[in-house]
Specification:
By secondary structure, the protein is of the alpha/beta class. The protein has one domain. It is built from eleven helices and eight strands. The strands form two sheets. The chain has a six-stranded mixed beta sheet. A two-stranded parallel ribbon has the order 7-8. Helix 4 packs across helix 9. The longest helix is centred in the middle third of the chain and has 22 residues. The radius of gyration is 19 Å and the shape is globular. The structure holds zinc ion. Zinc ion (ZN) binds next to strand 1 and helix 9. This is Peptidase M43 pregnancy-associated plasma-A domain-containing protein.
Length: 414
């Protein structure tokens, strides 16, 4: 998958500038290309499938064999339906093994840590002068968010069928929910000049700072910002400088690899994904298309990669060289270096491309335990920051009041 806007004319100066931005402020992603392609070519109808035996096109070794469905789920005896993905062989489309029907646990005072527990709040941000499209797109947005969330338990080999399983140690993201236990999506009209200001929502005085000033600054919240449309600066004469999904990664930007909840990445951060391509008609295929993009940004917002990770990619800071997984790019820019340390699947394709940390040694390495298949925590991630330690995932401890107080949300993105 090519990065958005890359082409024969891109110059070293622009890349150098972008690299500096990657290191200093945020981590960007190439996955916006998918939604753009989707606008040109409607996806075929989605269908239900079981978890695949292995990445499509990789008949031999299956590094994800332990992530196969339990027999009870294959028989359909686990309700609600957990396993749902889109797959097709059309040119330009990759397979996304994600699950938009994944259950969402209720975020309520009496459940699993109460409403003080670290949780993801979704914001639907639009320019204040433009008509909202949230209502007709909400069902698709929630499917995309559930699909994104499913990447985390699936990557840990943790499958479940009840709220109790979720709370115990699923490593699913903890969402702020409505009273009827659906993912809360709060609509926020923003001034148009803030919305369309500069190519990075994390720039000083940009949308992120404006949202913090509006009170979205709780240390126990990470904000998933769904932008109603792509900001206008992406559509000018120079699409090379166009808008891309991005997230704050405090582990990377502050150089913090502390493995404990004292890590700066375990508190407030923002991610931004433009979702203008979501259709109004419910369409799990389109939701699945956005889900991996959101999951990629969620991984950054949780602090992937921490500095010094064994496969930190010097040619693409914030991303691993050990591919394929959901944090890997596809083909990238000339000069960027990638390995295929996880089975040799074609870049951007297959099950591996929808899972975190394919060798479980860089940023997501979850210790196992009953009833899960044991997964030994990697030596490096046991001693450094792994996003699988985060209190924003069910099953991990919560920070103390003192730790929360020690991590106030900065006025400007660090
Ligand atoms: Zn990225």
């Amino acid at each position: 998958m090519a990065r958005l806007g890359s082409g024969a004319t891109d110059g070293a100066a622009r890349r150098t500038k972008e690299r500096a931005r990657l290191v200093a402020v945020a981590v960007t992603c190439s996955l916006l290309l998918g939604p753009l392609l989707a606008l040109l070519q409607p996806p075929p109808a989605s269908a239900r499938y079981p978890e695949p035996a292995g990445p499509r096109g990789q008949a031999a070794a299956d590094p994800y064999a332990r992530f196969r469905l339990p027999a009870s789920a294959r028989r359909g005896s686990v309700a609600p339906p957990l396993w749902y993905e889109r797959s097709n062989g059309a040119p330009g489309w990759t397979e996304r093994w994600v699950y938009p029907d994944l259950p969402v646990a209720c975020y309520q005072p009496a459940a699993a840590g109460g409403t003080s527990a670290s949780a993801w709040q979704v914001l639907w941000v639009r320019p204040s002068g433009e008509r909202s499209t949230l209502a007709p797109k909400l069902a698709n947005a929630r499917m995309a968010l559930r699909a994104a969330g499913s990447v985390f338990p699936a990557s840990a080999g943790r499958f479940f069928g009840s709220d109790a399983d979720l709370y115990r140690d699923s490593l699913s993201p903890r969402w702020v929910t409505t009273d009827d236990c659906r993912i809360s999506v709060r609509e926020v009209p923003a001034p148009a000049d803030v919305y369309d200001r500069g190519p990075w929502a994390t720039s000083d005085g940009g949308l992120r700072d404006w949202l913090v000033a509006q009170g979205f600054s709780e240390p126990n919240r990470k904000y998933v910002v769904l932008l109603q449309r792509t900001p206008r600066y992406a559509t000018g004469d120079n699409p090379e400088s166009g808008w891309q999904p991005h997230a704050e990664d405090y582990a990377a930007s502050l150089g913090d690899s502390d493995p404990s909840l004292d890590n700066a990445a375990n508190y407030n951060s923002f991610l931004f994904v433009a979702v203008g391509g979501l259709p109004k008609r419910p369409d799990p295929a389109m939701a699945d298309w956005y889900g991996p993009t959101i999951a990629h940004e969620m991984a950054h917002a949780l602090g992937a990669l921490a500095p010094g990770a064994p496969h930190a990619n010097p040619s693409n800071p914030g991303h691993p060289s050990d591919c394929n997984d959901i944090l890997c790019y596809g083909d990238g820019y000339p000069g960027e270096r990638y390995d295929v340390g996880c089975g040799g699947v074609r870049a951007g394709s297959g099950l591996a491309a929808s899972r975190l940390d394919c060798n479980q040694d860089d940023y997501f390495s979850a210790a196992g335990g009953p009833p899960w298949a044991p997964v030994a925590e990697g030596a490096w991630t046991a001693q450094r920051w792994s996003i699988s330690h985060s209190s924003f995932l069910y099953g991990n401890p919560q920070p103390t009041a003192a730790q929360l107080a020690a991590h106030p949300t900065p006025v400007h993105s660090p």
